[in-house]
Amino acid sequence: MTTQYRPEADAAAQAEAALAGQPAAYWTGLAYEALIAFTRAQQAELGFTQPQYWLLRNLSKNDLSPDGQGMTLTELQQAMSSYLRSEDDLKSESEVLLERGWLTRDEAGRLWITEAGDEARAGLKRHAPAIRAQIHEGIDDADYVTALKVLRQMLRNTGHPVD
Questions:
Q1: Is-contact 111 72, C-beta < 8 A?
Q2: Mean pLDDT value of segment 115-132
Q3: pLDDT band at 34; cut points 50, 70, 90
Q4: In this structure, are residues 18 and 94 in contact, taking their beta carbons and an 8 Å threshold?
Q5: pLDDT value, residue 21
Q6: Residue 2 backbone zone (phi > 0: left; psi -120 to 50: alpha; other: beta)
């Protein structure tokens, strides 16, 4: 039995070898920027910004806030430090939420989520699965998990702590 030469198999192997040599930092950076831009554009179409959503989430006892207590902008910036972008201006974003009646501010400058703000937060949160579904279209959960495992190992390999 003879094996036939298949040029398409050779080309596929060469293409995969070329991909294996690509710098991960380039592709992860490109993916990060594209995914953030896509998510923010989807949220903007719905009438809110990602930082506004994060403010509401971090102030809600029904979401990220452990106790539902108000926080200063400095405390909120610290709580969000791992995901805020340099262009995010929590002061101006909070002003929008104050105008909408979704936040209030006390005499000490602490921001508090209102009942209307928590209802808005819950409504905004309902859009997250649709945005995620668009991003994950055509990707099996198993492939996604594999990709995350690879990225986590790369982080460990470079001395970065992984939760």
A1: yes
A2: 95
A3: very high
A4: no
A5: 85
A6: beta
Report the pLDDT value the prediction gives residue 15, as an integer from 0 to 100: 83
Percentage of the chain modeled with pLDDT above 90: 83
Q: Tell which phi-psi region holds residue 138, choosing left (phi > 0), alpha (psi between -120 and 50) or beta.
A: left
Mean pLDDT of 39-58: 96
Interhelix angle 141-157/24-45, rounded to 10 degrees, is 130
Give the residue ranges of DSSP H helices in 4-140: 7-20, 24-45, 50-59, 73-79, 90-100, 115-125, 128-136
Tokens in use for 58?
A: 């971090």
The two three-digit tokens of residue 145, written as one number: 């998990």
**Token couple for 114:** 């209102």
Tell me how far apart the alpha carbons of residues 139 and 132 are, in angstroms, rounded to a whole number.
Answer: 11
Q: What is the pTM of this model?
A: 0.81
Average pLDDT over every residue of 107-136: 96
Q: Contact at 8 Å (CB) between 94 and 130?
A: no
Residues 6+ apart with CB under 8 A from 64: 57, 58, 79
Residues 6+ apart with CB under 8 A from 120: 48, 56, 100, 102
